[in-house]
Write a structure and sequence with these properties.
- The protein is α+β, with helices and mostly antiparallel strands.
- Helices cover about 50% and strands about 10% of the residues.
- Strands 6, 7, 8, 9, 10, 13, 14, 15 and 16 form a 9-stranded antiparallel beta sheet that branches. A 3-stranded antiparallel beta sheet has the order 3-4-5, with helices on one face.
- Helix 3 packs antiparallel against helix 7, helix 10 packs across helix 13 and helix 11 runs antiparallel to helix 12.
- The N terminus is likely disordered.
């Protein structure tokens, strides 16, 4: 389009003079004028800031990437960055022409982010706080370099990043537990409404099959629906933001993502209950179980689409109202920009390639380096850029120097067990007597392994299920160190005399040990959570932290008691504690804080849980548990738990 004054067109020189005067009077350049899509000077600034940003936060960002890669609940985080770039391309008309007005307020946000990072690292030891700190610093950089109006134009892609940041266990676990209960209660109700008898005990649904048998369906944490909720909330927020609808319409769509995700999960659990009813419970396991989980996504999208259609029928769109009054409707973002999102996306690699070509071409000849430097230096001397880059540089240098001096680490190194847990002996001599704790002959392999859903919830596997059919003790040491699959073991021991006969029928010790290493932010499930999910009620008055003596040390263990699901059933007493980094403690909160210490290079923890099912009196149970642990723990410490501190093989 040719610029003109009245009917007389302007010459190119006059048009440039008008644009220069307009920019100077308007108080700033727009992103379209100033950035010019990947010029050498802009690429230099972007590379410098990105390098300083990653240098400062490389530990936390690498750890977050590993979470995306290995944690099924947060695997959607791998696509979040690509979605953010796509959103920026889709809304380019909102930010390309926004005048850039850098503000010093951004430095205040950057300072706040750095303070939060130090506070989360050294004071409260909260990994989630570290992740949110780098996000806050990113917001501060955008504000400092581009201004408030630009930040307002790109707020949604910045907020969308938060969907990829893992919520810490301190918040995630209670939410997941509540969703388990909702899924179990709702599914049991639906099964009853369709005429299937289903009794609910905690998160366990007892389904009476059509053949007259009873099948138990446990809604494990893996079936809580938390994973689909996080992923669907992200997609729902994106769809609500991009929809050309009234604001309140989009807010309804956004708010509906949570109940729709819950409803989809209830549909899945109810389907598994129906499979148990028709005596096809095996179809709800293994690969079929995974496929049922994937089927939740189309169900969720179908419900979301139905809501969208309903709102379309009862809401008169603004565009239709403008069309009825004779006004021109507002064009879609792609129409307003003159090119589609696909065209824009296709142009980006070429623009980047041309910019990099000019960048390295300018440095290819010594005679051109000076010219390149003179063209770049004006942008690099811009005050706000110098301030932001200076703060990042000083922070990164200081942070890495402090880390080197104090030994601060963010990526914990794994520590292998001395041997796999399934190597634990089937007979444990009792100190000072001829008696021994022995595994009953009828305690077979099937009783020593949990189901796949429980293993997924625990994040641990029975050691005999490592790849190639080998246990960790059967593979070379280097391979075992690399595998580092979390392990567990469960056994039943009976106190027997020298003839192998039971000394006391009540002296039957059931113990459970789960071992984890390299990821300190997730502490294994405590019995309070597992038993409550199974329909038990905690007797809070009986829960204490008694002091035990075993393995040559005094340990404060955790003692809890639960009432049975059926009235009149005997009480269940449980003793548990954690062995971690050469220490022992019964309070899982203290364990989390100590494991998250920024000064420890290594991290491992094992939860040891003991109970005597046939002893209901809490004091008698406590005495029996201490007696068993006095015999059990020396073997565990000597032959299985790693030596502390471990040998540093990385040097």
């Amino acid at each position: 389009m040719t610029e003109a004054v009245g009917d007389k067109p302007l010459t190119p020189e006059q048009a440039e003079a008008v644009r220069t005067f307009t920019r100077s009077a308007g108080g700033g350049h727009s992103m379209r004028d100033a950035l010019d899509f990947f010029t050498p000077s802009r690429l230099t600034k972007i590379v410098m800031l990105a390098g300083l940003f990653f240098w400062l936060f490389h530990g936390t960002m690498i750890r977050l990437f590993l979470v995306w890669l290995h944690n099924d609940n947060w695997s959607h985080g791998l696509v979040i960055p690509f979605f953010c770039v796509g959103i920026l391309l889709a809304i380019r008309d909102k930010w390309l022409d926004v005048p850039l007005r850098p503000t010093w307020a951004g430095l205040g946000v950057i300072a706040l982010a750095l303070g939060c990072f130090l506070f989360a690292t050294y004071w409260i030891k909260l990994i989630m706080g570290q992740d949110y700190s780098w996000w806050l610093l990113l917001v501060g950089m955008v504000l400092a370099l581009c201004g408030w109006r630009f930040l307002g134009a790109v707020w949604f892609p910045l907020v969308f990043i938060l969907f990829g940041i893992r919520i810490g266990g301190i918040l995630y676990d209670p939410i997941s537990t509540k969703l388990q209960q909702v899924a179990a209660k709702s599914s049991a109700l639906v099964l009853k409404l369709v005429g299937i008898r289903a009794d609910l005990n905690g998160v366990v649904i007892d389904v009476f099959t059509r053949s007259g048998k009873m099948a138990s369906l446990q809604v494990a944490e893996a079936c809580s629906g938390m994973k689909i909720m996080m992923a669907f909330m992200a997609l729902g927020a994106l769809m609500a933001y991009m929809a050309r609808r009234p604001l309140w319409h989009r807010l309804i769509l956004l708010a509906a993502t949570i109940p729709i995700a819950i409803a989809s999960n209830v549909f899945r659990v109810t389907g598994m209950g129906f499979l148990h009813y028709i005596d096809r419970g095996s179809w709800a396991e293994g690969f079929a179980h995974t496929m049922e989980g994937l089927l939740m996504l189309p169900v969720a999208f179908l419900l979301f689409w139905l809501l969208h259609v309903i709102l379309s029928k009862i809401v008169v769109e603004e565009a239709d109202q403008r069309g009825a009054s004779g006004q021109e409707a507002t064009p879609a973002p792609s129409e307003a920009g003159g090119s589609s999102i696909l065209d824009m996306a296709a142009a980006v690699p070429g623009a980047v390639g041309r910019g990099l070509g000019r960048f390295f071409g300018a440095l290819s000849e010594p005679a051109r380096i000076g010219k390149f430097a003179r063209s770049v230096m004006p942008d690099l001397r811009q005050r706000h850029f110098v301030a932001v880059a200076g703060v990042l540089l000083v922070s990164a240098v200081s942070w890495n120097v402090v880390n080197a001096i104090m030994g601060t680490v963010f990526l914990k190194h794994p520590v292998p067990l001395k041997q796999a847990l399934d190597r634990f002996p089937d007979e444990i001599p009792q100190q000072g007597t001829d008696c021994a704790w022995a595994v009953p002959a009828d305690w077979g392999p099937a009783q020593r392994m949990l189901g796949p859903d429980i293993e997924k919830t625990l994040g641990a596997k029975h050691p005999t299920r490592l790849r190639d059919g080998k246990t960790a003790s059967e593979v070379p040491q280097d391979s075992a160190t690399m595998l580092m699959s979390p392990q567990y073991i469960q056994r039943l021991y009976v106190l027997t005399d020298d003839k192998g006969r039971p000394v006391d029928n009540r002296m039957q010790a059931y113990f459970f040990v789960s071992y984890y290493t390299g990821e300190p932010d997730v502490v294994p499930h405590v019995p309070e959570r597992c038993y409550l999910g199974g329909g038990y009620t905690e007797n809070v008055s009986a829960s204490k932290y008694p002091e035990f003596t075993f393995a040559g040390r005094k340990v404060n263990v955790r003692r809890v008691q639960f009432f049975g699901r059926d009235e009149g059933e005997r009480r269940n007493n449980v003793i548990y504690f954690f062995c971690f980094n050469g220490q022992m403690e019964g309070d899982h909160t203290k364990v989390r804080l100590l494991l998250n210490s920024p000064f420890g290079k290594y991290a491992y923890y094992a939860k040891v849980e003991v109970k005597f099912p046939l002893i209901s009196d809490e004091d008698e149970h406590q005495a029996a548990a201490e007696k068993f642990l006095q015999d059990f723990m020396p073997i565990m410490v000597r032959d299985f738990l790693p030596d502390w501190p471990p040998e540093d093989k990385t040097r």
